[in-house]
Amino acid sequence: MFLLAATLLLKSATVIDGEPRVADILINGQTITCVGKCAAPKDATVIEATGKFVVPGFVDMHAHLTEHGGEPRWNRETTLRYLRLLLAHGVTTIRDPGSETEVAVMLRKMLAERKIIGPRLFTAGRILNGSDFDPEPFAPVRDADDIRREIRWQAEAGVDFIKIYSSMTPAQTKVAIDEAHARGLRVIGHLQRTTWTEAARMGIDAIAHGAPWSPEYLPPEARADYHQTMFGRVYWLEHIDLDAPVFRELTDELTTHHVVMDPTLIAYHTKFFGKTSYTSDWTDEQFAAARKAWPKQLALTTLLFDRGVLLTVGTDMPTTGIVPGESVHDEMALLVSAGIAPRDVLRMATRNAATALRAKIGAIEPGMSADLVLLTKNPLDDIRSTRSIELVIARGVRYDPTALMKPAPSSKAIAFAPSSTFTSTQSREKVETTRMSMPSPARSAETFARNPTQ
């Protein structure tokens, strides 16, 4: 399944990282040491790559490892399967923007030590949530003391990021950002009650998903009829004016404050174009309206790109229809469908992610981590060619993608209990719309998902 050679030479590959060029790539251990005309020692393993294409390993900036739909607890075998699927599809690094804190830190350590197979992991812990909805991986916080206490715990546990959610007020968001930054941690926001513009001014580091859904971005006359439900997102897209000053102000603040974004177009596409538990009650007319509004979502993504916002590739796996690994290629195709060139999309999936993570990955240069994907077709001609994977190299180790796709040997699954009673209806499918909620009284997950503002 995988092989580690002390020295590995990819000979005469077409390197796609910046301007395409034919070059050798020499790897010593976990590091790229030469790109160009490279001399290798006699005992080096040589792979003839003439006529093939090498790109940096892909990065999924929105991959939840410990969420499994209707399951109330993380399942070891399911998570290990996710990791193998990601690597098989050329994903050599992931950012988990919300996971059970202690499990996530453990998984990161085991991956780094190669005790389990999978990509390099950067992770947040439990998601700070301003409502009382508390299944894993949410951590309800009611006031500034709660926020600081939770962030202190996660910092001591060793997370890489803090994640905050849509129900956080601007005041709560400011406390979270200040506390995290004081502890050397960056903050990812899935925001709605706090606008993106406000959060950028507060110093947030990253924003997840490709639309804010906040009523403040609608024309004043359209706000009264806006309902913050899943179908309300269609209304929001129908009524926003991307030429309005509010969007110029937004993009100016995002670029000025160097906020990183992962649009997760696939997370919206799966809902607008197919029935999931998010949209199980939609009529044919509602689906038709959603599909008609879809080009506005693409236009918003293009606007962010054109105005210089640092975009990355993220999927929100494993939400329904978002398959670990494969969905990275789906997301890249959707970004190209928005009018962004394949060269730029590849950069989002590699170099931009490296910038966001502050890691020595995402580039085919001496001194960088040896994370590479060998393709049989040119992705600059057709972005779908990112799927033509012949070999994956992660930190210098060669992996056969076909072997990775096969189930791993079974092991007894272990799980950790959630923070509260959790029923099958409270799956991540139902949690999604809590992300755009206001604080609310306790009620069933089903009701909460369908209308989080009541």
Could you name the CATH topology of the largest domain?
TIM Barrel
Helix and strand composition category: alpha/beta
Task: Domain count, please report it.
Answer: 2
- Roughly what is the average pLDDT, rounded to an integer? 89
Range of helix content:
25-40%
* DSSP helical segment count: 14
Question: Into which percentage range does the β-strand content fall?
Answer: 15-25%
Q: What is the CATH first-level class name of the largest domain?
A: Alpha Beta
Notes on the structure:
- With 454 residues, the protein is an alpha/beta fold.
- It folds into two domains: 2-56 and 363-403, Urease, subunit C, domain 1 (Roll); 58-357, Metal-dependent hydrolases (TIM Barrel).
- Helix content is 34%, strand content 18%.
- The chain contains 14 helices and 19 strands.
- The chain has helices spanning 76-88, 101-112, 144-157, 170-182, 196-202, 232-239, 245-256, 265-272, 284-306, 326-337, 342-357, 401-405, 428-431, 445-450, and strands spanning 2-4, 7-15, 21-28, 31-36, 45-48, 53-56, 58-60, 91-96, 120-123, 127-129, 138-140, 161-164, 186-189, 206-208, 260-262, 310-311, 372-375, 389-394, 397-399.
- The strands form four sheets. Strands 1, 2, 3, 4, 5, 6, 17, 18 and 19 form a nine-stranded mixed β-sheet that branches. Strands 12-13-14-15-16 form a five-stranded parallel β-sheet, with helices on both faces.
- Strand 3 (21-28) and strand 4 (31-36) form a beta hairpin.
- The longest helix is centred in the middle third of the chain and has 23 residues, at 284-306.
- It starts with a strand and ends with a helix.
